[in-house]
Amino acid sequence: MNRLNAFIQRHPLLRSLFITQDGKIVIAQTPNATLWGAGLLFIISRFSHPPYQRWVQGGYRGLLISWSIAEIGWGVNVFRRLLGGGVLTTQVASLMRLFR
After folding, report:
1. Would 81 be classed as within a structural domain?
2. Comparing C-alpha atoms, which of 63, 55, 57 is closest to residue 38?
3. Which of 9, 12, 17, 40 lies deepest, with the highest CB count within 10 Å?
4. Is the pTM of this model over 0.85?
């Protein structure tokens, strides 16, 4: 971890992306309940039959949208906010395609 910390500290762009306001490097963290729920619904959707699969996938995408909004608003660093924006964009597009 010391090598990664030193590498990030040397590069201003990486520093602005991955370092929080209290000086910690955050790239990944343990998933919260919303992501656990999305993962569970994703697995269930793989075994669901077509009439129910669409609704399970909608729930899965809805949970990911909720997580991404939380990351955009309250993410610990710029990387997490950008990640939330990317997930939000892809999930809204998928949801629109799913229910057309």
Report:
1. yes
2. 63
3. 17
4. no
* Residue 82 and residue 67 in contact, taking contact as beta carbons nearer than 8 Å: no
Residue 26: name the closest of 18, 15, 14, 38 by CA.
Answer: 18
Q: What single letter denotes the amino acid at residue 90?
A: T
Question: Which residues contact residue 50 at a Cβ distance below 8 angstroms, ignoring those fewer than 6 apart?
Answer: none
Domain span holding position 91: 30-98
Least confident of 10-14, 66-70, 95-99: 95-99
Q: Do you know the residue count of the chain?
A: 100
Task: Determine contact, residues 87/64, Cβ cutoff 8 Å.
Answer: yes
Q: How many domains does the chain have?
A: 1
